[in-house]
Design goal:
Length: about 80
Amino acid sequence: MVRALGPDTAAKEGGVTGALAAAEHLLSQGELLSAIKVLSQAAQGSAAAVALQSWIEDASARAKAEQAAHLLRAHATVIAAASMG
């Protein structure tokens, strides 16, 4: 049986189940890095670590790509502003 847990229930559940619910909530708020951290810490040393490893790696790569895109946009803005002035 699969059931959705809110962040309050997740805190009470603890462990990987609670971490999954907390990560889902964080993702719904756009907090990818926080979700990665929560799942990485909860899975460490557990059977879930193997199952979550691929997601954590993919999510980390996405976070790095988003950060790079943000830096490129900022750089382009600076260049555009300098060429206008």
